[in-house]
Amino acid sequence: MFVLADMVKETSAPAIASLKRLGLRVYMLTGDNNASAARVAEEVGATGFKAEMLPDDKEKYILDMQHRGRIVAMAGDGINDSSALARADVSIAMGNGTDIAIETAMVTLPTSDLQMLPRVVRLSKKTMRIVHQNLFWAFIYNIIGLPVAAGLFGVMLDPMWASAAMAVSSVTVVLNSLRLKLVKVK
Fold first, then answer.
1. Is residue 150 classed exposed, middle or buried when 0-12, 13-18 and 19+ CB atoms within 10 A define those classes?
2. Which of 89, 80, 24 is nearest to 56 (CA)?
3. For residue 39, which of 45, 48, 59, 152 sits 20 to 30 Å off, Cα-Cα?
């Protein structure tokens, strides 16, 4: 008698724990039978699981979560994940995934190591923080700069100074964005 079982990668449980510390709920959607899915979900510390799911079931589950107001990220690597990846708000293909999963996903990880997922979340949060900073400074610049350039405060701004101020504004946004290159995401 032979018994075959998928081995859970040793990095899976720490990755799930990291995602949960970031405030995310982690659900496992799988085509595997209920007993196997329950064992793996418990071993990795998933918030919950759904077993014996066909590709359309995964997509419907994601759609249901979205109708409940949730923002859904889906990570997958197989052809059975492609419709769910297409439906998700954020789709992530694992590096060893099928071509269709990689083509469908918004983000493709270089490896199939789940430890990359918390890093992607942290990097995206830092990116969004910088985007918001850039929008704030652009808004402030326009609130102050446009009335001054139009002479509303009794001062006429020379076009050369106005263009220099605009260049400084653009350079400030670019330099602020380049800070992302210095980020070491752990």
1. exposed
2. 80
3. 59
CATH label of the domain that carries residue 90:
3.40.50.1000
The two three-digit tokens of residue 77, written as one number: 């690597």
pLDDT in tens, 132-180: 999 999 899 888 888 887 788 787 778 888 888 889 989 999 999 999 8
Closest CA to 118 of 42, 29, 24: 24
- Number of domains comprising the chain: 2
Chain segment 3-21, per-residue pLDDT in tens: 556 678 899 999 999 999 9
Does 6 fall in a domain?
no
Per the structure, the complete domain to which residue 145 belongs is given by 122-182
